[in-house]
Design a protein that fits this description.
alpha/beta, six-stranded mixed sheet, 21 helices, 14 strands, 11% strand
Length: 650
């Protein structure tokens, strides 16, 4: 990973720690208090062991004489033992409190980041979300946010403790033995130095691992949703091989990350063990009289020396025991930092995808204007763009007034849905899109959407009950209102037939319901908005003729006296539309009412003819006259004003 990029990611990660509140600082302070208690505990242990083992032994005057010792009473060390037990309990409580505070800090941070991600996705809208598989978004919202936990709960506090604890121990060691303090001081940098050398590629490996996981999650979820299609087209075995290949790639990347983690841990343990061994060797030779430096003034040893400076000096193990007890604790924060260094690498890898999402440009709708109703809707040289700046539609101009209905037709990719997404506030635009004379970007979007009733071609119901889905906009709706909405959507009889009625379960992806039933429940939900403008995106595209008739009749009744914009490929439903805009390649190529366009040469007439020829169960006009063999003249105007015959969709 580029160093400048990694540095910027770390700056962003550290800037988010304010979301942890006081718990991050609390964790740090508890760790510092525990470190002070640890030094005091080492002091007491060294004092007790020295007194019990040596018993105040004195160096003899001659080689043949034995060391003289005084008796040691256990009562002498009773206060020390009580203090030791108290310190052990205190450190246990401090360790528990630190773990709880660290977890709470990470928990708050994860909640903050997830809320920011969800808010960002809400602002970017479905047009942006559909650009990635659902599994990729799940990986970002779940796994990658989860991998920030240890960075805030462990790594950040440990950086401060890795500086504080060694300095505290050095401050305790140097006053009693400068040589031991110097050994600690000189060997300490070895651990972070080799930690950095071993872990340099860890962040990059974790970033690649996250990318592989996101691709695998998206790939697997897409194939799982399309399992029936894969089976029907005999692609099951081939897709199993593809998933196996992707899984093997992810396994390989995961093992490379683990390999770095184990290598780093081995290096840290090796150098810590070597450093402690150097201290032990120093004190061993010092007590044998072979090394005579490091102490302040004369000190006793067990050699045969008759130096008058040391003869008669009480021989004790306190200095050696105290420093050797502290030595592992001196390196432990550095080893812990090395262990948690991989939490940093994971966080850096996860932060790249999170920042890419959170800093993605979004439609600039920051207005505060609120309207009470929709009287006019107009576009003037309107251009609609994707979230990455690609022009999708325009320039185009049109106007829609109260009680009028507008239809958008055209070949796939003409920009019809893009116009609806811009109207819903999900895509940026240039030019003018005016609501009652106010620019859409100047409106309060949440309040604006309360005036809209949206119904798409793929009904989206959520796991829960029928009640939960119909009352999605207002959970306080009474049962009578819910039944009324279901009746308006021609689905109340089906719900009444369910044993639980309004509490009938709705599974994930509307499981347990047909497409027509799901669409009518979605329609009931839309009717509950009490909207002024109906925004319809091919609401009957996936329905059978019976469900189509039910939805169409419910819509016609609900839209009476309301404004409507509808995208459709079913041109036979357009005779009730006031205006039809024919789009092609993002531009308006024709406009007018149904009768005018159906009798005018152009794209609409071509689409109408194709619609007649492709939908066998909708005989808008006869393709041939029975008995005469007369075919429809491909160049003749198409006039469709008659009522549909038996078998036609209403």
């Amino acid at each position: 990973m580029d160093k400048s990029l990694e540095k910027s990611l770390l700056v962003w990660l550290k800037a988010q720690k304010k979301a942890c509140g006081l718990f991050l600082k609390l964790s740090l302070w508890l760790g510092m208090i525990s470190a002070v208690a640890m030094v005091a505990q080492a002091y007491i242990i060294a004092t007790i062991l020295d007194g019990v083992i040596m018993g105040q032994q004195v160096v003899p005057l001659t080689d043949n004489a034995q060391m003289v010792s005084s008796s040691v009473s256990i009562d002498t060390y009773t206060p020390h033992l009580i203090a030791l037990i108290a310190l052990m309990l205190l450190r246990a409580l401090l360790a528990y409190g630190r773990e709880r505070a660290s977890f709470e800090a990470g928990k708050r941070l994860r909640g903050h980041i997830r809320a920011a991600v969800m808010d960002k996705l809400t602002k970017l809208g479905p047009a942006f979300i559909k650009g990635k598989p659902a599994g990729s978004w799940a990986s970002i919202v779940l796994e990658q946010v989860e991998d920030l936990q240890d960075f805030y709960a462990r790594y950040l506090p440990q950086i401060s403790l890795a500086g504080f604890i060694p300095i505290l121990i050095l401050a305790a060691v140097f006053p009693i033995n400068w040589a031991a303090g110097l050994i600690l001081l000189l060997t300490a940098p070895l651990i972070p130095m080799f930690m950095i050398l071993v872990g340099m590629g860890a962040a990059d490996a974790n970033r690649k691992n996250f990318s592989a996981l996101a691709r695998l999650s998206g790939h697997f979820m897409d194939r799982l949703k399309g399992l029936s299609t894969l089976k029907l087209f005999h692609r099951g075995d081939a897709e199993l091989k593809v998933i196996a290949t992707a899984s093997e790639e992810f396994r390989s990347r995961t093992m490379s990350v683990l390999r770095m983690a184990f290598l780093s841990s081995a290096v840290l343990e090796f150098f810590a063990a070597v450093s402690i061994a150097v201290l032990a060797v120093y004190f061993g030779f010092s007590y044998l009289g072979h090394l005579d430096f490091g102490y302040y003034g004369a000190h006793a040893n067990i050699s045969s020396s008759t130096d008058p400076q040391i003869v008669g000096i009480p021989f004790n193990l306190f200095t050696g025991l105290f420093i050797l007890i502290l030595a592992p604790e001196f390196y432990q924060p550095l080893r812990d930092m090395g262990t948690h260094y991989h939490a940093k690498a994971q966080a850096v890898g996860a932060a790249e995808a999170l920042i890419t999402l959170l800093e993605h440009p979004e439609p600039e709708f920051v207005g505060q204007v609120r309207i009470n109703s929709i009287e006019t809707l107009s576009a003037d040289h309107l251009e609609v763009f994707s979230v990455d700046g690609t022009r999708l539609l325009g320039p185009l101009s049109f106007e829609l007034k109260d009680n009028q209905r507008l239809a958008l037709v055209g070949p796939s990719g003409a920009g019809k849905t893009s116009l609806l997404n811009a109207l819903l506030g999900f895509l940026p635009y240039k030019g003018h899109l005016l609501i009652n004379g106010h620019e859409l970007s100047a409106l309060d979007l949440a309040h604006w959407r309360q005036h809209l009733a949206w119904l798409g071609q793929e009904p989206q119901l959520f796991h829960g009950t029928v009640r939960d889905n119909v009352a999605l906009a207002d959970p306080t709706l009474p049962d009578d209102t819910l039944w009324h909405l279901l009746a308006e959507a021609n689905i109340s009889d089906f719900v009444k037939a369910q044993p639980l009625g309004l509490d009938a379960p709705v599974g994930e992806q509307s499981s347990g319901l047909s497409v027509g039933q799901a669409q009518r429940i979605a329609l009931a939900r839309a009717l509950g908005q009490k909207a002024s403008l109906f925004v319809l995106d091919e609401p009957t595209a996936s329905l059978d003729s019976q469900s189509e008739q039910a939805v169409s009749s419910a819509l016609n009744w609900a839209m009476a006296g309301k404004m409507c914009i509808m995208v459709t490929h079913r041109l036979d439903q357009l005779d009730q539309m006031d205006t039809i805009l024919v789009l092609d390649k993002g531009l308006i190529v024709q406009r007018g009412d149904f009768t005018t366009l159906s009798n005018t040469h152009g794209l609409f007439q071509t689409l109408l003819r194709e619609n007649i020829e492709s939908v066998a169960d909708i005989e808008l006009v006869p393709l041939s006259v029975s008995g005469s063999g007369t075919q429809l003249d491909s160049d003749a105007p198409v006039d469709i004003a008659a009522e549909p015959t038996k078998g036609e969709a209403q």
